Amino acid sequence: MARPAKAVRLTVTIVGAAYAVALYVSGVHIQAGWKHALSYLPTLLTFAVALWDIWLWRLLGLQRLAKRPWIAGIWKATLIPTAASKIPEGGNRGPIDAYVIITQTFWSIGVRQYTAESRSDSRAAMWDDAPAGTDKTLTYTYTNRPRRELEDRSKAHLGTAALDIVGLRPTTMTGDYFSDRYTQGDMRLTLVDRSRDHSDYASAEQHWRSTLPSDSR
């Protein structure tokens, strides 16, 4: 999941810090008065922008102003291929269990999906106002990599997915997808929690089971 905003944020933070150090070394200190204090304003704004991207926008009051849903975390998903999908012989015709891991800042978002047979990673994403009374739609392109032992019937492919998001902190989402293998279908997602450090389907599955009541495991 390429996230150029992370590199940009790191760059502006380093530049801002270097600027502040240069001012200090040259003898410009806040105690010297308002005019000198104002010279630190670019540095303060740089850190403010970085903090906004990482964290501030998620504070409930500011989030209402930003109107950006917070969907980071691990989601339990079900994929439902349509009958018209060109699924090869022996392939999973659904419903397909999956886990979706979303990493998000204000200016960047990455979506990774695990199924028992493959992994998908988003390449580009776009927010848009959603139709039919919903709040936002997140549309993203992705690449899919199947497990090596399944490549004879499940080839690597490209696709596009769209998630309809209602509210600023949803716990459920719906969506749809289609791929260049001529497969398409619907998606249903339920938030598990805000964790994201899950490296494969098995670890995501284990984490999900650990959140269930003991009598449901």
Describe this structure in words.
This protein is an alpha+beta fold and 217 residues long. The chain has 2 domains: 4-54; 73-216, Lipocalin, CATH 2.40.128. Helix content is 27%, strand content 34%. It contains 5 helices and 8 strands, in the order H-H-H-H-E-E-E-E-E-E-E-E-H. The chain has helices at residues 4-25, 34-38, 41-54, 60-66, 201-210, and strands spanning 73-81, 96-104, 109-114, 118-129, 136-146, 157-165, 172-179, 184-193. Strands 1-2-3-4-5-6-7-8 form an 8-stranded antiparallel beta barrel. Helix 1 packs antiparallel against helix 3. It is globular. The mean pLDDT is 83.
Return the CATH topology of the largest domain: Lipocalin
Low-pLDDT runs of 5+ residues are none
Order of helices and strands: HHHHEEEEEEEEH
What form results from the Cα inertia axes? globular
Q: What does the oligomeric state look like here?
A: single chain
The number of helical segments is 5
**Count of distinct structural domains:** 2
What is the strand arrangement across the widest sheet? Answer: 1-2-3-4-5-6-7-8
Mean of residue pLDDT values: 83
Can you identify the CATH class of the largest domain? Mainly Beta
